[in-house]
Amino acid sequence: MFYSSTYSSPIGLITLMSKNNQLIGLWLENEKYFANSVDTIVTPHDNLAVFNLTKTWLDNYFLAKNPTINRLPLAPTGSPFRQHVWHILNQIPYGELTTYGDVAKKVALLMNRKTMSSQAVGGAVGHNPISIIIPCHRVVGSNGSLTGYAGGIDKKIKLLELEGVDLTALFTPTHSTAP
Does domain 2-62 have CATH number 2.60.40? Predict the structure, then answer.
């Protein structure tokens, strides 16, 4: 059975979704790809253990406490390629950035390939179903541009500022949609 709950955050309303007491979705209000694309019956339920854990994690995150994800039962659904990308995103330290190209190199190594398309990685990053916790906001363009974020560039900027990232060293946003 699928359940949903909401969380009021400093960057707007967040929708949480679970299946079998595992978190399968965390979407920002008006996020480009997910919350409106769910095609199954979802029952609102605010008091599930997975939601309580996630909300505590979010409380700590928005207080800039750098919470760890090791206690969260995450279960993002996606192809093996996307799973590799999301696994690498989880390794980006709090308050640090990486590029789509760097993620592509790491995915290529995981998949025993010589190269990997940065554009393909961008698609997987943009379709991350568990925003913030799987930190897709920490990925930038090769020139430091804040390109792409399904939740909106303004929210990406707020998340990075919360984490203490020095945005003055980066280029200005190039567009407000995910790659």
Answer: no
Taking the domains of the chain in order of start, what are their residue ranges?
2-62, 80-169
Active site annotation includes 136: yes
Please identify which of the residues 16, 132, 136, 162 carries the catalytic annotation: 136
Any residues with CB less than 8 A from the CB of 102 and at least 6 apart, and which?
none
Classify domain 80-169 by CATH number.
1.10.10.10
Q: What is the pLDDT of residues 63-98, one digit of tens each?
A: 999 998 888 999 999 999 999 999 999 999 999 999
pLDDT in tens, 116-147: 999 999 999 999 999 999 999 999 988 888 88
pTM for this predicted structure = 0.88
pLDDT tens per residue, range 28-45 = 987 766 655 566 677 778
Long-range contacts of 110-118 (CB under 8 A, 24+ apart): 110/84, 111/81, 111/84, 118/142
Burial of 67 (0-12, 13-18, 19+ CB in 10 A): middle
The DSSP secondary structure of 24-85, one letter per residue, reads EEEEETT-SSSGGG--S-EEE-S--HHHHHHHHHHHHHHTT----STTS-B-----HHHHHH
Identity (one letter) of the amino acid at 140? V
